[in-house]
Design brief:
alpha/beta, FAD/NAD(P)-binding domain, about 500 residues, nine-stranded mixed beta sheet, about 20% strand, about 30% helix
């Protein structure tokens, strides 16, 4: 039986993978492609996460695709609305027929003589792996482990007799009506869940070791909604997308250039929302500067309203141990809890957890250099998508997809079959730094030693700067001396 083959295989059918498939349809219609999805549904994160209040912390005019206008009034959208948007994109562009559900990439082996990737793939409900081949491998599997969240190793957690849950695996039948809920964490997930659970819970407590910066904004974008009344949807969307992208960039640059002023601004906004008697210094004043870690977005001031109403509260303290009916803190306080939610972060995966070889040699990504943050040195015909930590994920996913299509079309026009970034000898000893630099968030730092390094000059960088990368990605493929193109020597 012959091995199934496609020109391009996309790994992942979430927001990124569906967008990648659209761009291939649109710009490389001569290329056959297939999407491998380990789960049984389209949507990735937006289908997996079902916890109360699940939503984006980026506006949908930048988190949405460049080619499909977001037309809902709410710019800060909930998970079901985003999932519907992704599924609509797949349906409108006949992408479902190209998806193989329940297919997980286990390993990938590159052969230079054939310019071919051979993929070992596991299937749901089958012990027998299958093999597929492709000329180009497009990793759109996201950045975290779908099966295993980060485990902070809570002390004596086995003593707790209540319900302990993780947002990544929210039980569909969990009843928290009139329950005392403690949510451990201070990131976007915790701040989303706190106000969402106050409608039923008896009391909701957000327990954090240290505070996070919080930015509040309306969930509806008056500018976008106004434009749609007078302009075609695509025009209104394009203008809003450009405006919001610029706004994100300006906020980030101002925070980086004037960290003390930015800190005063963010803290003053919290004081305005919570009042002079609230202990903002303890609960909402981080020890670091804004954008040293990602900001948390609070739409429509819902977190502050929950705190002001008394239905939610914030406790800033370290955990000493779990008890039978709650959590004992280092300061001696005891938090009673019927349900504890561990919103303590994700566990990152490199390349979706698959293993890779090139011409029989195992690839250790930590020993390679990133090329524009989308390829790695010495690994041919493979692109991996990772979005922005300081802006919307899809801005970078779209840039990457457009670059991939231009690269594929360049190979077609030059009758080459292999594209590989190679660090020149003169730069082999250039200074390097982490793949994501100057961003000390725990979920990133826990995996940086596994990621490729970045150099100190383009294209061996991962700048995480949309404006710079739009120019860098837009440079002609044919004039890029870092990319080496060859033809297969053995069909």
């Amino acid at each position: 039986m012959s091995t199934e083959h496609r020109d391009v295989i996309i790994v992942g059918a979430g927001l990124t993978g569906i967008g990648a498939a659209y761009h291939l349809n649109d710009k490389c219609p001569d290329r056959s492609y297939l999407l491998l999805e380990s789960r049984q549904a389209i949507g990735g994160t937006w289908d997996l996460f079902r916890y109360p209040g699940i939503r984006s912390d980026s506006d949908m005019h930048t988190l949405g695709y460049s080619f499909k206008p977001w037309e809902s009034r709410k710019a800060i959208a909930d998970g079901p609305a985003i999932l519907k948007y992704v599924r609509e994109t797949a349906t409108e562009n006949n992408i479902q027929q190209h998806i193989r559900f329940g297919h997980r990439l286990i390993s990938a082996s590159w052969c230079s003589k054939q310019s071919l990737w051979t993929l070992d793939i596991s299937q749901d409900n089958s012990d027998a792996p299958v093999q597929m081949t492709c000329n180009f491998l497009y990793m759109c599997s996201g950045y975290y482990n779908y099966e295993q969240p980060h485990d902070p190793q809570f002390p004596e957690v086995e003593s707790f007799k209540g319900t302990l849950v993780h947002p990544q695996f929210w039980p569909r039948d969990l009843d928290y009506k009139d329950k005392r809920v403690v949510i451990i964490g201070s990131g976007a997930t915790a701040m989303t869940m706190v106000p969402a659970m106050t409608d039923k819970a008896k009391q909701v407590t957000m327990l954090q070791r240290s505070p996070t910066y919080v930015l509040t904004r309306p969930s509806e974008d008056w500018f976008a909604n106004g434009l749609r009344k007078i302009l075609p949807a695509t025009w209104a969307y394009g203008i809003t997308r450009a405006r919001n992208t610029l706004f994100q960039e300006v906020i980030f640059k101002l925070a980086q250039s004037y960290p003390n002023a930015a800190k005063r601004f963010f803290i003053s906004e919290v004081r305005r929302q919570l009042g002079k008697d609230y202990n903002v210094d303890k609960h909402f004043t981080p020890k670091y500067f804004p954008w040293d870690q990602r900001l948390c977005l609070v739409p429509d001031s819902d977190l502050y309203e929950a705190i002001n109403s008394g239905s939610a509260n914030v406790v800033t303290e370290h955990i000493k141990r779990f008890t039978k009916n709650g959590i004992e803190l280092e300061n001696g306080e005891h938090l009673e809890a019927d349900i504890v939610v561990s919103a303590t972060g994700l566990r990152l995966l490199v390349m979706g957890g698959a293993t890779f070889t090139v011409d029989g040699e195992a690839v250790d990504f930590s020993n390679q250099t990133t090329y524009k943050g989308l390829m790695v040195s010495n690994v041919p015909n493979m692109v991996s998508v990772f979005g922005y930590i300081n802006a919307s994920w899809t801005l970078r996913a779209d840039l990457t997809a457009e670059w991939v299509c231009r690269a594929l079309n360049h190979m077609s026009s030059t009758q080459t079959t292999k594209m590989v970034p190679v660090v020149p000898d003169a730069l082999k000893d250039m200074p390097t730094k982490d793949w994501i630099a100057d961003f000390p968030a725990g979920y990133m730092q826990r995996s940086m030693h596994l990621q490729p390094r970045q150099g100190d000059q383009a294209p061996w960088v991962n700048s995480q700067n949309f404006r710079k990368e739009r120019a860098l990605f837009g440079k002609p493929i044919e004039s890029d001396g870092a990319l080496h193109f060859t033809a297969a020597t053995n069909g």
